Amino acid sequence: MSETNSAVDVAAPHRYTAAMAADIEARWQDFWDAHGTYEAPNPTGDLAGDAELAARPKKFIMDMFPYPSGAGLHVGHPLGYIATDVFARHQRMTGHNVLHTLGFDAFGLPAEQYAVQTGTHPRASTEANMVNMKSQLRRLGLGHDKRRSFATIEAEYYKWTQWIFLQIFNSWYDTEADRARPIADLVAQFENGERPTPDGRDWSALSAAERADALGEYRLAYASDAPVNWSPGLGTVLANEEVTADGRSERGNFPVFKAKLRQWNMRITAYADRLLNDLDGLDWPEAIKLQQRNWIGRSEGARVDFPVDGAGDITVFTTRQDTLFGATYMVLAPEHELVERVIPAAWPEGTHPVWTGGHASPAEAVTAYRKQAAAKSDVERQAEAKDKTGVFTGAYATNPVSGEKVPVFIADYVLMGYGTGAIMAVPAHDARDFAFARAFELPMRCVVEPSDDRGTDTSTWDDAFASYDAKLVNSANDEISLDGLGVVDAKAKITEWLKAKDLGEGTVNFRLRDWLFSRQRYWGEPFPIVYDEDGIAHPLPESMLPLELPEVDDYSPRTFDPEDADTQPETPLSRNADWVNVTLDLGDGNGPKKYRRETNTMPNWAGSCWYELRYLDPNNDRQLVDPAIEQYWMGPREGQPTGGVDLYVGGAEHAVLHLLYARFWSKVLHDLGHISSVEPFHKLYNQGMIQAFVYRDSRGIAVPAAEVEERDGTFYHQGEKVSRVLGKMGKSLKNAVTPDEICAEYGADTLRLYEMAMGPLDVSRPWDTRAVVGQYRLLQRLWRNIVDEETGEVTVVDTEPGEDTLRALHKAIDGVGQDMAGMRFNTAIAKVTELNNHLTKVGGPLSRSVAERLVLLVAPLAPHIAEELWRRLGHTESVVHQDFPVADPAYVVDETVTCVVQVKGKVKARLEISPSISDEDLEALALADPAVVAALDGAGIRKVIVRAPKLVNIVPA
């Protein structure tokens, strides 16, 4: 604290200072904890009590799970937490039963990486980080119901994560009923012959392994050998969303390769249509909805079969089946399962040298190219690279409409993750196919008539011609002709023909892929799955949950040379033989048997897929959630047809990860009758980011922002000139400011006000420590308007305020209330500031009625000082549950408004008139005004246009 401020404090011992703020804030935080101020009641089954609860509106307000980082919080982290707290406080004061709490998403790679480096158990470091973050968050005065808080690493919590996994594992998607059903229903269909087995034999004739395989094709959670993103440097596989655009791991920046491994998956694709359609009923930002729609990627087209001699059919999905006559070659993804089946022993006679890649045989060429493709990410493979790569498989397929033999290539621009992993290439009308055909000297045929002057001779073309408006040409055989048809009609006609010939059919495809759900790590939820001696997966019975993580000596997954793609994962759990190999009685009538546990763990997303439900009923050890409690807080209701959390605030970066996964889990749980809500989050709000200036020296290395000096617009660090750019705030950028620093300097209420006043909540904004003092001074003026700084006595009087003050007060009440409800906290603070400044300017003791309502207006924003002033004003109850002030409409309407009077379009007068004046009275006033009379100068009037109360326009004759 400066010497000047210290001197003032001595002269004014009861002045609002950082020291006083610290004392006030600590006392009231203790009070709230001791009295359970923020505890939200649940329905209990008591008819009278539940009826009383149902009579009150409820509001379930959530923040996205924080991860307990060892670095703690910087001032950018609490932005959303403060905003939801302000909103929740306002909702309580408007009569709502508010559920607002915060837990920790505590599994994940950071703690495990720290454990690998230091030998510290991930639980120990995670719990220490949580203690620190809880302390930081408490200091902000957040009104959380602490009874409902938990961490995903608690066995009591992940017991139910494992239980949900088993519900998904023991379910299948019935496309006819359009919902998930228990796997037992599917078994019954196989047993009674209602559904044929894969090879047509009776269900009773199948072995246990064959039955398991048959059910695995339907289960919503299943294990399969599939192409995955393998990161040797991390020792684990990654979901597509965890791989950067340049083919490296988001965590650690290691190379990522394509490999085929046996992994657990969630059949999220079964819900693609519902995930897409139900977006319409959600109150989410349109940008997030668009990201999910694009990620799901629904497209209508056709499935077409291209026969390959001796190898069956290559099936493609295309949205341009009208161009089938123009397909002159095919491309398989390098990972496609048919590749090995179609390649011949030697190159066919006459194979173009360019097609072979210089290899002696198709097998050699394919093996080399697959290795090359595995080193690229999906994003890299789909990039519009100038040079297209690929290799001929040595096989030919038959175009089903033209009968022509077309060569089959593999190329990395085709992915297994879209369609069937195979394409029919129409190079004349697709840019990537055109580039590939030119590189490999492949033929192309124009089947869509160009609208420009290039003609149909493709040998003269410089690029492909792609159009949905042109007519079809060169598209006929002995049985069908598309010539002269538009694209829409041609697609319909060829689709009908393909189906009649059993060569294909119209279908819908999705970009969405099943969710890879395994990680080769230690610090995650163990799968409640064991394998028998035949490798068949068996679910653990509910009585054996939770399956807790065992202690291990080494937390490291086996990592490899980051550039060595030809490796296999080895998990930390697999090295604990006593835990892996067990004898269990699963209660299935087979008695005790030897089993092997699953040694992968669930991904960090698992715990955050359902945590909103645990907040509702956090101590329930008998069921996932009490149905009556879930119905009360999250059930469908008017305006929220799919149910869900009333307000969910967090970053936009989770659009296609957490948000999509959580929606899938909710829909499965709803289908199985465990919850009434179809969607987890009804309203989503994305807060912006608090940014900070990053200063870098001549080497490009960040220097401590606090040590930088500004001289005439130039910035220096230790005498050296440095650059400045606006960017993220973080420890590595040396520009982080902790909330602890600001709280120590000014108090938590000041920090809260500043973060809310910086600008609209959904917009990113730069942090400026020097500007924080403005909100500090607002609180000092507020304090001074009610408390004598010399004596500490309250100075309010029991007299009625003047009319000007009443108008200022009620306008503020009206505006602040609307802004709070609309989460426009920056403008709410501006209105409070305007009111407080008015009261300061008027001077003299405040009327008690004004002072009390001023405190209530401030209470959601700065709760500590509001509690203190409320108590000093003589109230014994907490301000938290007081009614928010209601504006008197008579004082909200302006007493007069300014009306502009124009003559021939030019302003001639301004009239101060009543807002409720009639058109007739306003016209009369305008025509009688001396300035208007002078402007008319005796001329007649052709027309008077009146727009009461703001405008009169007079048109002379």
How is the secondary structure organized here?
Elements: H1 3-11, H2 18-35, H3 47-54, E1 58-63, H4 78-93, E2 97-100, H5 109-118, H6 122-139, H7 155-169, E3 171-174, E4 179-182, H8 183-191, H9 208-216, E5 221-231, E6 236-238, E7 257-266, H10 272-277, H11 286-296, E8 298-308, E9 312-318, E10 329-332, H12 339-342, H13 353-356, H14 362-374, H15 378-382, E11 391-398, E12 405-410, E13 422-425, H16 431-439, H17 487-500, E14 504-510, E15 515-516, E16 529-531, E17 537-539, H18 577-580, E18 581-584, E19 593-597, H19 611-616, H20 627-634, E20 647-650, H21 658-671, E21 684-686, E22 690-696, E23 702-703, E24 708-711, E25 714-717, E26 720-727, H22 739-746, H23 748-757, E27 765-766, H24 772-786, H25 803-821, H26 825-842, H27 848-858, H28 863-872, H29 889-892, E28 897-903, E29 906-913, H30 919-928, H31 930-936, E30 941-947, E31 951-956
Parallel strand pairs: 1-2, 1-20, 10-12, 20-21, 22-27, 28-31
Antiparallel strand pairs: 3-4, 5-6, 5-7, 7-15, 8-9, 8-14, 10-13, 11-12, 16-17, 16-19, 18-19, 22-23, 22-26, 24-25, 25-26, 28-29, 30-31
Helix pairs in contact: 2-22, 2-28, 5-6, 22-23, 23-24, 24-26, 25-26, 25-27, 27-28
List keywords for this structure.
single chain, 957 residues, alpha+beta, Isoleucyl-tRNA Synthetase, Domain 1, Isoleucyl-tRNA Synthetase, domain 2, 6-stranded mixed beta sheet
What is the C-level CATH assignment of one domain? Alpha Beta
Low-confidence stretches: 1-9
What is the rounded Rg? 35 Å
Shape: globular
Largest sheet data: 6 strands, mixed
- For this structure, what is the CATH homologous superfamily of one domain? Valyl/Leucyl/Isoleucyl-tRNA synthetase, editing domain
Number of helices: 31
The CATH architecture of one domain can be given as: Alpha-Beta Complex
